[in-house]
Amino acid sequence: MRVLGRDFSLATLRIEVTDTRGDRLPVNRQPGDDESGRGLILVDALADRWGVSPGPAPRKTVWAEIDLLP
């Protein structure tokens, strides 16, 4: 049911992945490089911005944001 005046919009979608390899930071590779790290080629192509946030040792969080509104 839709209630008048209670609409919302989503401006940015944020995706986060946390792992326990805080010592290994992601590297954006080029197509044809090693078999590891190729997922960031897709992230870099599709996301408006991405980065890495350190967490409590030994964790890190890789995040990507996609702007949804023009």
UniProtKB/TrEMBL annotation:
Keyword field: ATP-binding, Nucleotide-binding
GO molecular function: ATP binding
ATP-binding among keywords: yes
CDD domains: HATPase_RsbW-like (cd16936)
Entry protein name: ATP-binding protein
Organism of derivation: Streptomyces maoxianensis
